[in-house]
Design brief:
The complex is a heterodimer of chains A (269) and B (281). Chain A is an alpha/beta fold. In chain A, 35% of the residues lie in helices and 23% in strands. Chain A has one domain: Rossmann fold (3-Layer(aba) Sandwich). The chains are: A alpha/beta (269), B mainly alpha (281).
Chain lengths: 269, 281
């Protein structure tokens, strides 16, 4: 069943993170001196112009890329490799096409050696949570993009992760579906109480969802400003028309504009 | 919203699956007509002993072939040839499948396997399997084993290369997703690499089945004392021309049925792939 953990977990500590790649024999610095702490159960949005390294930060927490310098620690344990305690929801096309919806959601439980009956029961309850009861036997290819993303969320949450890492998860769905998905995500998050690190370049989305919005600089990405969003929860969709929301949006927009301008003007290293 | 989408999906599937009343007989009828016209042309060519550089004097007519087929299929010896060929095909194809898929998965996934196993495969690949017949006769103790070897060789290359191709085409994001859901190395291989490569593997098996029939028939014609290929070649030698055509048609039908089995088994293993329908179906 869907249960919130007794003790809240999911404290992410990113300290002085730097990540550099070599591409075509050139050194590309994606992230530099990036520091961010989250409290357990917090929803933090990473907002920035495209190519600013926000996905790289997420990948470092996921364990997909190793820090060149600095540390990434989750609940006191340094991140060394990917693991089910840090589930990732990708932008799109990350479900296993050869597995049914149910088998996709069961995957993490199967990897932990949980028996078929138990895993089916748990997976079904999380499918129910994301509003996809009745689609257990469908294949991902038969679902719409938004439905696929909901399966992706259920597939992560069934593992009761310390943190859920979301990399522009609604970037590829149409605008109307996106709004519904955001509301659904907030509803689900209220139930599971896991820490969420949410990468996006959509300002409305970041403010609507998050407890804090971290605006990143152009590459190499650093945190430019960390803004608390003091809008009350639960947030109805109409919250985006309130003066408080507008004021915050204006502030964020000004910063993002400036950073996008720099990303455009400055030659890439 | 969810229910609406399901309803739409079901309706779309129903529309694709059931072409409506009047048009349903048209395509089969066209196909039957096409075959009928071909048989008629063949009959006419042999009836009038056409000779326009291509010579039809010695070519049996459709009627001769039918009479010969009825006679052959009512005696046991012809079935012996068929069984010999089928046994060689399935044995050779099975060995090639096991070797080709296993090696292909390793070569496609591990750089070390690619460096050590792929070079000899690339070296031998351009040599047509039929060119191996003399060496094969020397290598293997029996006629049966040497022909199975040739058949295996023919099927092996398309299977191994398509398997490699399939593994290399796997979306890395799916591997990442699997690791972030707690999958270890073995689980990734079993749950992601194998099913991810499966469509390409099935293509390889289907091509491999075709090539192994070509190799089998050639090998039987050159070195056999049994089999449909041998039978067809000998019929020429003993001037039983109608038997040649019966042999050819038998080879064609057996090859077609073998490919059908591969395709059906393949589709069974990949229920997630959508079935495509052509316009006008």
């Amino acid at each position: 069943m869907v249960v919130a953990p007794d003790r809240p977990t999911g404290r992410i500590e990113i300290t002085d993170l730097g990540v550099a790649f070599s591409r075509d024999d050139r050194r590309v610095e994606a992230v530099r001196r990036f520091t961010l702490m989250t409290t357990p159960g917090e929803f933090v949005a990473l907002l920035g112009p495209s190519g600013c390294g926000k996905t790289t930060v997420l990948n470092a927490v996921a364990g997909f890329v190793q820090p060149t310098v600095g540390r990434v620690v989750v609940d006191g344990e340094p991140v060394r490799e990917p693991g089910a305690d840090r589930g990732v929801v990708f932008q799109q096309h990350s479900l296993f096409p050869w597995k049914t919806v149910l088998a996709n959601v069961e995957f993490g439980l199967k990897m932990r050696g949980i028996g078929p009956t138990e895993r089916s029961a748990q997976a079904r309850s999380y499918l129910n949570l994301v509003g996809l009861a009745g689609f257990e036997r469908a294949y991902p290819g038969e679902l719409s993009g938004g439905m696929q993303q909901r399966v992706g969320i259920a597939r992560v949450l069934v593992n009761r992760p310390r943190v859920m890492l979301m990399d522009e998860p609604f970037g590829a769905v149409d605008a109307q579906t996106r709004l519904a998905m955001q509301e659904l995500l907030l509803g689900v998050w209220r139930e599971v109480k896991t820490t969420v690190l949410f990468v996006t370049h959509d300002i409305d989305e970041a403010i609507f969802l998050a407890d804090r919005v971290a605006v990143m600089t152009a590459r190499p990405g650093q945190i430019r400003d960390l803004m608390p969003v003091k809008l009350p929860r639960p947030r109805p969709a109409e919250v985006i028309t309130t003066p408080e929301f507008m004021a915050l949006k204006a502030r964020v927009l000004a910063q993002v504009r400036e950073e996008s301008g720099r990303a455009w003007v400055e030659p890439r290293p | 919203m969810a229910t609406a989408q399901l309803v739409r999906a079901t309706a779309a599937r129903a529309a694709a699956a059931a072409p409506l009343g009047l048009t349903s007989w048209r395509r089969p009828a066209l196909r039957a007509l096409s075959i009928g016209l071909f048989l008629l042309a063949w009959h006419a060519a042999t009836l009038w002993d056409l000779d326009f550089y291509v010579r039809f004097q010695n070519i049996p007519s459709p009627g001769d072939v039918l009479a010969e087929a009825i006679e052959l299929f009512s005696s046991w010896s012809f079935y012996g040839h068929i069984l010999a060929s089928l046994e060689r095909i399935w044995l050779g194809f099975a060995i090639a499948t096991v070797l080709g898929v296993a090696l292909g998965l390793l070569i496609g996934w591990f750089a070390f396997a690619e460096d050590t196993l792929l070079p000899p495969i690339e070296l031998f690949r351009p040599i047509p399997a039929v060119a191996w017949v003399p060496i094969s006769i020397m290598l293997w103790p029996t006629e049966r084993s040497s022909i199975v070897f040739i058949t295996t060789l023919g099927a092996f290359f398309p299977i191994v290369l398509n398997t490699i191709h399939g593994v290399e085409g796997i979306d890395r994001q799916l591997v990442r997703a699997a690791t972030s859901l707690g999958a270890g190395r073995a689980a990734i291989f079993r749950e992601v690499v194998l099913p991810g490569a499966l469509p390409s593997i099935v293509t390889g098996l289907s091509v491999g089945m075709g090539v192994s029939w070509i190799c089998l028939i050639s090998a039987e014609m050159i070195s056999g004392q049994f089999g449909v290929g041998y039978f067809t070649w000998v019929a020429y030698g003993i001037v039983k021309y109608a038997q040649i055509v019966v042999g050819m048609l038998t080879i064609g039908v057996l090859g077609m049925l073998s490919s059908l089995v591969v395709r059906l088994v393949g589709a069974r293993c990949m229920p997630w792939l959508p079935r495509r329908e052509k316009d006008g179906a």
